[in-house]
From TrEMBL:
GGDEF domain segment(s): 683-816
UniProt protein name: PAS domain S-box-containing protein/diguanylate cyclase (GGDEF)-like protein
Top-rank lineage group of the source organism: Bacteria
PAC domain: residues covered: 212-264, 338-390, 469-522, 599-651
Coiled-coil spans in chain: 381-408
UniProt-listed SMART domains: EAL, GGDEF, PAC, PAS
SUPFAM superfamilies tied to this protein: EAL domain-like, Nucleotide cyclase, PYP-like sensor domain (PAS domain)
Any matching Pfam family: GGDEF
PROSITE patterns attached to this UniProt entry: EAL, GGDEF, PAC, PAS
Alphabetized CDD domains for the sequence: EAL, GGDEF, PAS
Keywords: Coiled coil
Keyword Coiled coil: yes
Length: 1087
């Protein structure tokens, strides 16, 4: 009967929920049964295995679901599992589509603490394993049947040396003759003690993994003794261990007895063979040695084991085998006896001649069965014959070789007898004379040479007849009219008593050599003349470094005469400067030993008067035809003047021309060296960055000459203040860097900084002017503020700028706060550069209005930064970043181009003659690229110069008054209007205003803020009076006036009354985007 799910044990339900995901994924049938033996859950594999739907099983007792009988073992297994026992067993499936298949069932108790609450049942199909077991059993029965009928005793011994198996033939060798009396018993109890001791060492080897074969005489249970051969084969498991040994026994008693008979017969034959003095051997039909006597072994120097059973080719080697035996094999197979003589090498290395007979043997069928080798020593007879033959051949060969050698010599050679007749001439002499040998042999020297040449050589021949050997060189004219220089060597041949028997003559053609010597003498003469007239000193050394040439110019440059130095070694007098000796020696080695034949070196040399000069040497190695160095040639030029000039140039390149202080290049190098010393000595160092405050005002007011003199005096004061070991460098206009090493204590940098600032504050008397300046100083300490030169200089620079921000005339130590501020600034600069490239900058325009008519005449371009994260950023937040000239240039060019495009767009849109106003900073006024850039932009955008107006502040105007006036004049001549911005707050001279090329004055908003009050006066406060004065001045100069920063209507009223024509400010219109400005203009036009 099905049970309600509400009766399910909550603990079991929880375990089912936990196990179910994993059991659903496996392919093994699985189910969970509760304590009441009811199905509480089963996976799909279980349902498929039994072919039942879930509703037939879920909640039913196992006995009800499958009609399990009390005798069925499953009921007992389930009971034991519910009692807490884990079971694994094999059984046959009794129900479902897999009925009859074997499975392996696992009954695993499910516990809640110590309490069993159910059973997890999993089954695995093992039918294939059962099939394999059945097949193995069948094969085992078949193997037993084969083994019992194989006819050879076979048995198996396990690792404990127990007798586990034997086949039927094996029982004949065992006591009792039955398996029951032997199987399972130790081997030692089955066989006799004697047989066990014989078998023991062989079994031990087999149990070590070796295959063993041995023979012994065994005794059967009947008492019969027979020779057997035992094969032991180890049974090796997969892990490499020997788990048993197979034993196979072969009866070899008949073979053993036959072998003994053969050995006895062989012994008799060997006795006879060993007493024969010559080598004897027998080779079978497979050409393997089957017998050799001791003489054979002695001759070959081999042992019996090296020969017997081995093939002839293996014993003698392939070469001897092919020579001694293979040519006769076909005849031997036909039954023919063969005989030959051979020189046979012995074991002692001596070879002896033998007469060898090969006697074939045939078997009962008349087939070739092998052959005997019988040797007889015939060495003494053969040696006598051979010595005679060899001596004759050697004599003939020696004569032939001598003739070949002499004929191969390219030098003509002859032999003449005592009568002066030619007895031998070589081929070179035949070719040289131009006659065949048979026309020369037998004739006299006089006949062959003729009277003229005979008269030349006769005195020399007379000396040779007297026993003298000599060589003569002669220019000889030949019959064909040629004349050539010849070297003739004559050597007499004398007998034992010293009597003249003849002479040998060798002739060498030395004509080319003579011509080369003549050319060399001529070339040497020309070269000497050239060396004597060259402006370079010429010195030649032999291979021992001795002077062999010393030109006149060398004497002029160095002061020593040729007679004073020729023959002396280069290092034998004070010539090469001591510190340059190693470099000179190294170059000499490079030239003589290395691949480069020429090298140039600059070194110092002494002159005779003891002075030192710089010389540039061009050195070469002179070599013969075989590449051997025969001398060294050096060409030297006095370059002392050039070296001094180079030293001066190097000094100028590394030092400031005004103060003679090291410049930035030297600073970095020497600072790194100082830091290395500080690291080694574990001491501190400091870098100070000094910048003069308002130094530009000195240049602008008193001129650059005064400024330069002030800098020179400041450099002198700094040198006097610091130690000699400290470094001072000028790295730009009024910027100095000082490096302090080996600091005595931590307060030393601050004390030095205080002294330096005091020296900078002291008045400077320059060209009758008493000049007062101050300095800002930044200090960075090693190693805390940086570990390299660039970092320390950069951090000292940041500290200096911090001092300037705090009011100047002070010093600051670098800190992490400054580093963070500098990092933020760098990040902001980077972001601004990205903004420029990413089109995040934009221009707003604030119109300028005619206060009488309301017309809009201008619009001032005001840059904004539309940052993606911060939104719209006003100029005050990012304009300080434009102190970087490169960034300032890029932004200003962009603003100028956008304003020109907008001026063009206003006209294209019909918005009248609106002028675009652009602010120029003092940095832009000093930018030499402003005019070329402006012209390119005007051309590119189609903007007319008259549509553009530049605003310049009073301060920017006065910084470089003369240069600014020149630039403004050029701009006005181009058609651009010029306005002075923020007028009234600067300190420009009104006298300058009259001469400035300007068109507009823009009154500063600070003055406008003070006008238009409630007072009945013309203006409230002093601002009104100043504005009125400015308006009167501008009208007097014919300048247009724009009031900036108009915030109230009352200001408009006041300005209009005072005659101000134009105004700008939030009251009139705030800055607008180009689109909004266009809408504003159109709306205003409609009104």
């Amino acid at each position: 009967m099905q049970n309600n799910e509400q009766d399910l044990d909550p603990a079991l339900a929880a375990r089912i929920a936990a196990l179910r995901p994993d059991l659903d994924r496996i392919t093994m049938p699985a189910c969970i049964i509760d304590l009441d033996q009811r199905y509480r859950w089963m996976n799909e594999a279980y349902l498929a295995h039994f072919g039942r739907p879930r509703e037939d099983l879920q909640g039913f007792r196992v006995s009800d679901a499958f009609k399990v009988q009390p005798s069925d073992g499953r009921r007992e297994h389930l009971r034991r599992a519910l009692a807490g026992e884990s079971l694994i067993f094999d059984r046959e499936t009794l129900e479902g589509p897999r009925r009859g298949r074997w499975v392996r069932a696992s009954y695993l108790p499910i516990r809640d603490g110590d309490r069993v609450i159910g059973v997890l049942v999993m089954t695995m199909d093992i039918q294939h394993l059962k099939d394999v077991e059945r097949d193995l059993a069948q094969r085992e029965r078949q193997l037993t049947l084969i083994n019992d009928n194989i006819g050879l005793p076979m048995s198996y011994i396990d690792s404990e040396w127990r007798f586990l198996y034997t086949n039927q033939p094996g029982l004949d060798w065992l006591p009792g003759g039955t398996r029951e009396s032997s199987v399972g018993r130790p081997l030692k109890e089955i066989v006799s003690p004697e047989a066990f001791e014989v078998a023991r060492p062989h079994l031990e080897r087999a149990f070590r993994g070796e295959k063993v074969v041995y023979e012994r005489q065994g005794t059967q249970p009947t008492g019969a003794k027979r020779w057997i051969r035992v094969h032991l084969v180890p049974d090796i498991a997969q892990d490499g261990n020997v788990r048993g040994v197979y034993s196979i026994v072969i009866d070899v008693d008949d073979d053993h007895r036959l072998r003994e008979a053969l050995l006895e017969q062989e012994a008799r034959l060997r006795f006879f063979a060993e007493n024969i003095p010559g080598p004897i051997a027998f080779v079978d039909a497979e050409f393997r040695y089957r017998f050799v006597n001791n003489v054979f072994l002695t001759i070959r120097g081999l042992g019996i084991e090296d020969v017997i059973g081995h093939r002839v080719s293996d014993v003698l080697g392939p070469d001897l085998s092919r020579s001694f035996f293979e040519p006769f094999i076909d005849r031997l197979k036909k039954g023919e006896m063969c005989e030959y003589e051979r020189l046979v090498g012995g074991s002692n290395g001596a070879a002896r001649w033998h007469l060898v007979r090969l006697v074939p043997t045939l078997n009962a069928s008349g087939q070739f069965d092998g052959y005997y080798i019988v040797g007889t020593d015939v060495h003494e007879i053969k040696s006598s014959q051979e010595r005679l033959r060899v001596a004759q051949q050697a004599l003939e060969e020696k004569e032939r070789q001598l003739r070949q050698v002499i004929d191969a010599i390219p030098t003509p050679m002859v032999y003449c007898d005592a009568e002066g007749c030619y007895r031998y001439v070589n081929q070179a002499f035949v070719d040289y004379i131009g006659r065949p040998a048979d026309q020369i042999i037998g004739r006299t020297v006089r006949d062959l040479l003729g009277e003229d040449r005979w008269n030349i050589f006769q005195p020399s021949l007379d000396r040779v007849r007297a026993g003298e050997s000599l060589a003569v060189e002669r220019l000889i004219r030949f019959a064909d009219g040629r004349s050539r220089w010849m070297n003739v060597r004559l050597s007499p041949r004398l007998d034992a008593e010293g009597r003249y028997l003849g002479h040998f003559a060798t002739t060498s053609d030395i004509h080319e050599q003579k011509m080369v010597e003549s050319d060399l003498r001529r070339a040497s003469s020309i070269l000497s003349a050239h060396f004597d007239n060259t402006p370079l000193a010429v010195i030649e050394l032999d291979t021992e470094s001795r002077v062999v040439r010393w030109s006149g110019q060398a004497e002029k440059i160095f002061g020593w005469s040729a007679s004073e130095v020729l023959g002396r070694k280069l290092t034998g007098w004070r010539f090469v400067y001591e510190e340059d000796l190693e470099a000179v020696s190294r170059q000499v080695r490079d030239i003589t030993d290395g691949p480069e034949p020429h090298k140039t070196i600059v070194n110092r040399n002494y002159r005779k008067d003891g002075s030192v000069i710089w010389v540039e040497w061009h050195n070469s190695a002179l070599r013969d035809e075989e590449g051997r160095v025969i001398s060294l040639l050096g060409l030297g030029q006095d370059i002392s003047s050039r070296m001094q000039a180079e030293e001066r140039l190097m000094y100028l390149a590394t030092h400031d021309g005004l103060t003679n202080l090291p410049n930035r290049m030297v600073l970095t190098d020497r600072l790194e060296s100082a830091l290395s010393r500080a690291r080694r000595s574990r001491t501190g160092a400091a870098v100070m960055f000094l910048d003069l405050d308002r130094f530009k005002d000195v240049n602008d007011s008193l001129g650059h000459r005064v400024g330069d003199q002030l800098l020179k005096e400041l450099a002198r004061r700094l040198r006097a203040t610091l130690r000699q070991t400290d470094l001072i460098a000028r790295i730009s206009g009024d910027e100095f860097v000082m490096v302090l090493e080996d600091l005595p204590d931590d307060e030393a940098p601050e004390r030095v900084a205080t002294k330096v600032l005091e020296e900078a504050r002291r008045p400077f008397n320059v060209d009758g002017h008493e000049v007062h300046v101050s300095a800002s100083l930044g200090v960075a300490l090693f190693p805390g503020d940086g570990d390299d030169a660039d970092t320390l200089i950069r951090n000292a620079d940041a500290a200096m700028y911090s001092a300037k921000e705090l009011g100047r005339n002070s010093f600051r130590l670098f800190s992490s706060e400054l580093a963070e501020r500098r990092t933020r600034r760098m990040e902001s600069e980077t972001a601004l550069r990205r903004a420029l490239k990413g089109k995040q900058l934009l221009l707003h325009y604030q119109p300028v209005v005619d206060l009488k008519t309301g017309a809009v005449t201008r619009a001032e371009a005001l840059v904004r930064w539309n940052d993606p994260t911060r939104g719209l950023v006003m100029p005050a937040a990012f304009l300080p970043l434009l102190e970087d000239p490169e960034l300032a240039h890029d932004v200003s060019v962009w603003v100028l181009e956008q304003a020109c495009k907008q001026a063009r767009a206003w006209r294209d849109a019909g918005l009248g003659g609106l002028v675009a106003t652009v602010n120029l900073s003092s940095m832009q006024l000093r930018d030499a690229t402003l005019m070329p850039a402006l012209k390119r932009i005007l051309t590119r955008t189609g903007c007319e110069p008259t549509w553009l107006e530049f605003d310049i502040t009073e301060t920017g105007l006065m910084r470089d008054y003369e240069g600014t006036v020149q630039l403004l004049t050029k701009l006005r001549s181009l058609g651009v209007s010029i306005a002075i911005d923020d007028f009234g707050t600067g300190f420009s001279s009104l006298a300058h205003l009259r001469n400035l090329p300007v068109d507009v004055l823009k009154i500063d908003k600070a003055l406008i803020a003070d006008v238009g009050g409630t007072s009945k006066a013309k203006g409230a406060g002093t601002g009104g009076a100043i504005v009125s004065a400015i308006l009167g001045l501008a009208h007097g100069l014919g300048l247009e006036v724009i009031a900036e920063g108009i915030e109230k209507k009352s200001q408009v009223t006041f300005l209009a009354r005072e005659g101000c024509t134009h105004g700008q400010g939030y009251h009139l219109c705030p800055p607008l985007t180009p689109t909004d400005l266009a809408k504003w203009l159109k709306a205003r036009k409609k009104k």
